[in-house]
Amino acid sequence: MRLKWFPVASMCAVLAAGSLSAATPTGLGTVGGQVLDTKSKPVPDARVTLQDSEGGHLQTTQTNTQGHFWFPSLPEGQYSVRASDQGRISEWQQNVWVSPGRQTDVTLHLRPHKLGSCAAFLEVVPCANQH
């Protein structure tokens, strides 16, 4: 009896695998993952930034209620990913390789900002005229 069910189960597994890979267009991949706090708890509504290895192709997204994020339909190549929210930021996770038809998983850990270490707080103001 078991042998009769084996071909049916095998065919279902092949069809299921085919439907999963069809979610990503041919030649494109996905970066996905989760943002966690210092206690390894998910961070909802964190901003996640993706950048290609040449400093271009910048994209942003928000994490869901479980701290998960996705960047679908990416060309094959190398990327960097970073997360931030109010007063916290992760390190850039570099050398994230995207392969066609696959998802590359990344876990980002938010840490409190260190004063003076973030260039995003730099403000350029004009100097007063000196005569």
SSE string, helix = H, strand = E?
HEEEEEEEEE
Summarize model confidence as the mean pLDDT: 79
Helix content: 10-25%
Strand content: 35-45%
The DSSP helix count reads 1
Name the quaternary structure. Answer: single chain
- If you compute it from the alpha carbons, what radius of gyration comes out, rounded to the nearest whole angstrom? 21 Å
Helix-strand category: alpha+beta
In angstroms, what separates the terminal alpha carbons? 98 Å
CATH class of the domain at 26-113: Mainly Beta
Q: Could you describe the largest sheet, including whether it forms a barrel?
A: 6 strands, antiparallel
Shape label:
globular
**How many beta strands in the DSSP annotation?**
9
